[in-house]
Amino acid sequence: MEKGRLRALLPIGVFLVSFLGMGIISGDFNHMPTVVGFLLALMTAFFQNRSLNFDEKIKVITKGVGDENIITMCLIFLAAGGFSGAVKAAGGADSTVNFCLSILPSSVAVMGLMLIGCFISLSMGTSMGTIAALAPIAVGISEKTGFPMALCIGAVVSGAMFGDNLSMISDTTIAAVKTQGCEMKDKFKANFLIVLPAAVVSLLVFFLITRQADYTLDAELEYNLLQIVPYLVVLVGALIGFHVFLVLISGTVLSLIVGVATGAIEPLGIFSAVGEGVTGMYDITVISLLVACVVALMREYGGIAYILQFIRKRIRGQKGAQLGIAVLALLVDMTTANNTVAIVIAGPIAKEIGHEYGIEPKRTASLLDIFASVGQGLLPYGAQLLLAAEATKLAPFEIMPYLFYPWMMGVSALFFIVFGKNRKKTA
What we know:
Layout: H1 10-26, H2 34-47, H3 54-65, H4 68-89, H5 92-103, H6 109-124, H7 127-145, H8 149-166, H9 171-180, H10 184-210, H11 225-240, H12 244-262, H13 270-279, H14 282-301, H15 303-312, H16 317-336, H17 339-357, H18 361-378, H19 383-392, H20 396-399, H21 404-419
Helix pairs in contact: 1-2, 2-14, 3-14, 4-7, 4-12, 4-13, 4-14, 5-7, 5-11, 6-7, 6-8, 6-10, 6-11, 7-8, 7-19, 8-10, 8-18, 8-19, 9-17, 9-18, 10-18, 10-21, 11-12, 15-16, 16-17, 16-18, 17-18, 18-21
């Protein structure tokens, strides 16, 4: 087995110290650009491990950046940006917000954001597409109601992580099932029982926080139902189960058609509308590539192997084994900032642990998926929070206190581990 090295995790430590340190010192977490923090982490990684020369390290990060999951994620960013720019220019965001506020009581507006996010993400199987679709609506609701922007986008991210973990077409679900050798439906049932209480509690928390809100509209809010159609297409496409790219591209094209038809966009302005949206995703795309570079070097140096060995040595009994799998998924996700990659990396050893301690494959698959999603939903440098922060111009740390669902999901899973009955795997 590859030798694990704690010092290989230094780059991520450098990022956290520099990013958090500058935020604490300046009182503004936007003071240190995320991209600069990861450049420092990458420089640190390049200075490590003298057994590899510079050219060899370049080959390592090139392979890491070329990973299918990384390329797919970056393409989703760009597609999401195109949709966001088009639907905003077409007036879809304003019309959707105004329509929602006109028919929904103020006490359920934020809770409704999470509930809609749950349905979209469960259908699309991606948290990124869900956040991209609902972020403009969250911004509009915040501006019209006075609710904190971080609260509204926190509801969106919470709903997005529900489906990211549970959807049958989510790449995390597929990875967990494939690595553990269980049936999709069995994993879904085991997973659903664990996360349902977390979702219900999170919805109640959002309701309780906003239940006494009472905003008065200064004037009748104007909206055009035709401009809302692109969002409905995205929602229906998600419910049907279309691929996230098809959903976002269809929404983009339809937004441009509606924008021209209603006069919101000049015919020659359709390209600039999409271009502005795509340009707004440049930062997060570059950050994702930098994260992939850092992770590739940390893996090459033995950082991931260290985490795997650290967990394996501390397992005692079946409950301890389940806790070990949970911590394993969480720590690997923290170092990779990609829950699908974390499951693929941690999956083989989780399967060994499950076999050794008699844990059912559907249980190990659920634990892998849940705790990788818990980490991914809370990481300030994870793609989900970076996208949410980019859409709202907030710092990830400002959003984190309102991510009730990822926290509750972790608590619920721990409760099931500690107080649930041990079940021996059937032969």
